[in-house]
Amino acid sequence: MIARRDDKRAGRPRGDLDTTLAALGGAAPAEALSALIAGGHDRLPWPGGGSTLARWRAFAAVAHRDLSLAKLFEGHCDALAILHELGADALAAGATGAGRAADTPPRWAVWAAEGSDNHVTVVRRDGDAAVLSGRKGWCSGAHDVERALVTCWDGESGPHLACIDLHSPGVDVQDGGWHAVGMAATRSVPVRLYNSPAALVGDAGDYLARAGFWQGGAGIAACWYGGAVALADALHARASRDDAGRHAALGDVDAALHAAAAALREAAAAIDADPSADAMALALRVRRIVEHAATSVLAIAGESLGAPAYCLDARFARTAADLPVFLRQSHGARDAAALGARIADEVPRWRL
Ligand SMILES: Cc1cc2nc3c(=O)[nH]c(=O)nc-3n(C[C@H](O)[C@H](O)[C@H](O)COP(=O)(O)OP(=O)(O)OC[C@H]3O[C@@H](n4cnc5c(N)ncnc54)[C@H](O)[C@@H]3O)c2cc1C
Fold first, then answer.
1. SS3 of the chain: helix, strand, coil, percent, to 5
2. Angle at 275 between CA 88 and CA 352, to 5 degrees
3. Looking at ligand 1, which residue's alpha carbon is closest to its atom 19?
4. Which member of 61, 164, 184, 201 has the greatest number of CB atoms within 10 A?
5. Which CATH class is domain 108-205?
6. Do domains 108-205 and 208-343 have the same CATH topology?
7. Where are the chain's structural domains?
8. How much distance in Å is there from the Cα of 262 to the middle of ligand 1?
9. What tens digit of pLDDT does each residue of 291-322 get?
């Protein structure tokens, strides 16, 4: 049963997001995520609720500061939106478990990678109460979050979505295997489940059937966009009036970012105009546009600013390492092929 969405969220953030981000100082991403949640900044408008662009602006603002934090923040906010869409808001609250104050809201993640190495099965179930076993890879924030939504299979039936508590028996967060240099702080390690208790959320297939699935996928592009703007800002700060060479770089970066921003704004408006529509093509398209823009910005700003930016500017160096890794969440040519296949039998809407 997929709940009707509206834009009403309980509570309001304390203070504005930019101020909170500026006050984070050198906080590690997991700690920074807690601060954003404590400040109520995770109470974003729901996707398709009329203010999708405001939601994406928050992702871009967080990404502008730190892409690993944005990965954790986007995953947390996506989990809350999924629970809302599947009529399970009650699961979003509650005690957080070991070592944290009882009234501290849990940090969430969504782990949905599938494949022979990434397969979780329902061993037993009694209504919505289930016992899960298996392995899930690519679990961003696994060492830091308290709760996660994981996809799982009950025989051939699935994917189901299940809520797990990371402090439950049989949950083993692996230490090794994450050798990423960019996005290192997300520590997206495998998690093994050995007869772990879980609560099933919705029915088989509901997770993928939601319009929110693709709307959420489009939201990730806003994170990539925020990272690209951080690189562009570094270029802008060093483009003096008489530096014609750098002006060419700045012009190309400006054009790429304007195109990406326009695509994000148009996508957000289209989602709000028809929130129950299939957003697959829209999401694949905007993700590809932003991926290409961000790749261009990295190449152009990197070349124009040269080695000092990569080696002496900690912020640029961090973002330039993180962005290409985060962009690999795009599924590359596979997503392009999926978009092409989707529109191949339609009359393309390319006319102005
Ligand atoms: C930093 C980071 C954090 C992540 N965190 C999470 C998380 O928290 N939760 C989660 O669920 N997942 C997460 N993921 C996993 C992510 O969603 C993907 O599952 C993972 O990146 C594997 O991507 P893939 O399926 O494209 O890889 P593969 O299927 O191995 O594809 C690799 C490449 O092969 C090419 N390719 C594959 N198939 C085709 C095709 N049919 N046609 C043309 N080319 C093709 C594409 O270029 C593709 O990029 C994370 C990934 C990254 C990089």
1. 50, 15, 35
2. 155
3. 113
4. 164
5. mainly beta
6. no
7. 17-92, 108-205, 208-343
8. 26
9. 999 999 999 999 999 999 999 999 999 999 99
Inter-axis angle of helices 280-305 and 244-273, nearest 10: 160
- 256-268: average pLDDT: 98
Ligand 1 within 6 A of 108 CB? Answer: no
Token look-up 């993928």 returns 208
109 lines ligand 1 (CB under 6 A): yes
Q: Is 326 in the pocket of ligand 1 (CB under 6 A)?
A: yes
323's enclosing H/E stretch is helix 314-327
pLDDT digits (tens, 9 = 90+) for 6-61: 555 656 677 799 999 999 998 999 999 999 999 999 999 999 999 999 999 999 99
| Domain 208-343, CATH number (from 1.20.140.10, 3.40.50.720, 3.40.109.40, 3.40.50.2000) | 1.20.140.10
What's residue 14's pLDDT?
73
